[in-house]
Amino acid sequence: MTSAGRDAAETPGRVHGARRVLHQVLAPACVLAAVIGIWELVVRELDVKTYVLPAPSAIARTTADNWDVLLPNLRVTVEEMLLGFALAAGVGVVLGTLIASSAVFRRGVFPLVIASQTVPVIAIAPVLVIWFGYDILPRVLVTALIAFFPLTVNTVSGFRAVDPELIRLFRSLNASWLQIFRKLTFPSGLPYIFAGLKVAATLSVIGATVGEWVGADKGLGYQIITDTSQLETTRVFASIFLLSLSGIALYLIVSVVEWVSLPWRHSVRAKRRFELAMSPLRLGESPRASGWRSRPEGRQIR
């Protein structure tokens, strides 16, 4: 290929990469900056009272000034969040695997799993406090109860979405159930599992906060309740800001693990983009000039 053709082939990939950066990083950052700027302007121009709606600059100052108070509570909440997320991940994947693998288990248990989500977790949390006390365990259980459902459903959907033809192929080669699960079902369901983990990562922040509202003497959720009763609205927003950062951080960690664990997904996408960029029609060449020939009719690749 000539240098001009090579440059033309690389151009679509560069443009696509620039667009991805723009969409995933710059665009949300610009929107966030605009929202913060408008928020700051409205509070200053309308002279809104601090206990009603503090300005973003005041929230930043309060976060820095009260860091010695917020940091210990942040550590407690993050610990609850991580433990609840880990418990939800383990229970969700195991339960989803059993539901997807056994028709009897699916008919008997899956409706109960769905019905469990109709009961408000905030109504169950006081009962957990009565059973297990004011230790960290009730808050971890509340976090797991909120976060496990989407992971369970995604695991079931991923394992049941495997192509039946591939399963029959493995069985024709005398593969055992464990071999089919290890070589086919589990790898095929991993994208679904990671999608559920991302949802569970954000829900775990909500679960930890709700658990602290019901029964706790420390944590950002407890700090929010205390500051609200004292009209310390600025510090309430500071706690909310730290909770949001914790959820975003856990989501990004799951995304990085997904990227490392599923390299084949990204390689397939990169191959498709490369093939699209190398297409003779995209490069402005005629099919005959590039040596490209269509597949003879009537011939199929199986």
Model description:
The structure is a single chain. This protein is an all-alpha fold and 302 residues long. The protein has a domain at 67-277: MetI-like (MetI-like fold). The chain has 11 helices and no strands. It has helices at 3-45, 56-65, 67-101, 103-116, 121-132, 136-160, 164-172, 177-214, 220-229, 233-261, 263-277. α2 (56-65) packs across α10, α3 packs across α10 and α8 (177-214) packs antiparallel against α10 (233-261).
**Global structural class:** mainly alpha
Question: What is the CATH architecture assignment of one domain?
Answer: Orthogonal Bundle
Number of contiguous helices:
11
Please compute the radius of gyration using only Cα atoms: 26 Å
Biggest sheet descriptor? none
The unreliable regions are: 3-13, 277-302
Assign the CATH topology of one domain. MetI-like fold
The top level CATH class name of one domain: Mainly Alpha
How many beta-strand runs? 0
What is the element string, with H for helices and E for strands? HHHHHHHHHHH
Would you summarize the structure shown here?
With 302 residues, the chain is mainly α. It contains eleven helices and no strands. The radius of gyration is 26 Å and the shape is globular.
Throw out a few tags for this protein:
single chain, 302 residues, mainly alpha, MetI-like fold, 79% helix, globular, disordered N terminus, disordered C terminus
Topology (elements, then pairings):
Blueprint: H1 3-45, H2 56-65, H3 67-101, H4 103-116, H5 121-132, H6 136-160, H7 164-172, H8 177-214, H9 220-229, H10 233-261, H11 263-277
Helix pairs in contact: 2-10, 3-4, 3-6, 3-8, 3-9, 3-10, 5-6, 6-8, 8-9, 8-10, 9-10
